[in-house]
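FAQ: What does a ligand-bound record look like?

Like this one, built around 2-oxoglutaric acid:
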Amino acid sequence: MDRAASVEHCIREGLLPEELCRELRLLHLVAGVPGYRPNCTACTLLACPKWGWPALLRARELARDAAEDFFDEFGGLWPETTATVCWFPGSSLPVHTDDCKEYLSKRHVSVVIWLSSQGVDFEGGDFFFEVEGASGESREVVSPRAGNAALFRASERHGLRTVLRGARLALNIWFTRDPSAAEDSRLLGPEGLVLGWGRGLSQRFFGAGPQRTWPEDEASGRLAKRTLAQANLPPRGRALRPRKKRSRCKEGLQPVSTSPLPPSRRARLAVAAHRKLLAVPGSKSPDWHGGHGHGFFRLVWRRERQVRAALPRWHQHGLLSIGPLSSPHSHDCGQLGGRSSALVEHNDYVPGLTIARGALGSALQRRLKKLADGLMTSQEGQLLNQSMRFGSDVPPWAYAIVRRIRRLRGFFTKPRAFDQLIARSPDSESEKPSPDFQQSTVEVPERA
Ligand SMILES: O=C(O)CCC(=O)C(=O)O
Ligand SMILES: [Fe+2]
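The answer part, i.e. the structure of the complex:
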């Protein structure tokens, strides 16, 4: 019997080497922003600063090889979204499938690689598959360990039990069989160039999201220290010293804010991360003699140059499934004009919004339309029906639009981070709410 037809998932031990897990933990620490789910931070490949790309791309390739091998789809899977997600206490994910929405329907295979270990870095947070057997449904529970991975079809039912303590970090990679939905077209398209490459210095170090505006909180401080302790960085100053491990688990769930670190702390962490990532083993880097700031800037610049120079090579070797960097990304916008209302969807379970084209007055409308068109154009220039962005994939000005929508309508009952932007065409079929996700939808009437 065909293996793929009989076995739908597997756990691969040691898919990522410890060194790579460490790099990704550091990257998340520097570039993660609130998003994806309540009590989570996320860092997507699209919006992460480009010095983080090599680690993410390497991990992505290992995941792709493993998935193509296991599902016997050699050369057939394209990465659709790559993101690290950190689950803090109180976060969980009920039984779901990863293709349960229209805008997720291009996801065909899921790979989750854990970057931290249960019992060491966090408590709770078991991963499980819901498997159907002769005697009804049962759960196959997996204890996440750093470097191990779950490979499964996106249509398979699975979930994540509540995290009770610590920080549970994972790398999610969803694959599609449709190359036009591959994330690389966005990575090197105008959107990626704006988000991933960044303009100002701080964008280049931390990513383009709103991370600079969130205040510090205790949970991210703890995560920072633990991650740094695990990363074996040379201690430098107080912020980098590992803390004693906490011996007792706190009773019950601790509600936490998932705010990332303030700029000063992030800068120190970024410096530490770069020292680790860019250091040539066994040699003293002369770049550091100029002191922290100066040497750091030069290292970032050098890493960026390396990434930029490597892009054609990566592309040539099939690491990037896209056209040349300079390919024009244009299409006929005319057919999209004349929309009169926007659907703003407020989803109770997954915090976020769906924004369609139109409405909101002419200036915002133009910007929103531009964003939506950018998000909803495939590599071939075709318009997609829906598209989703979260965390720092959402440009800061789009956050401003959402704040304005909030003020305008006042329909948000709870303050929440706008961490997901779902742009979809008004022509797309309205989706049926999945039983796993509660939704409420609000029509925003056209403004005069
Ligand atoms: O982190 C995990 O173990 C699973 C996460 C998951 O299923 C998801 O994000 O869809
Ligand atoms: Fe999932």
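Follow-up question: can I read anything off the structure? Yes, for example: The two ends are 63 Å apart (CA to CA).
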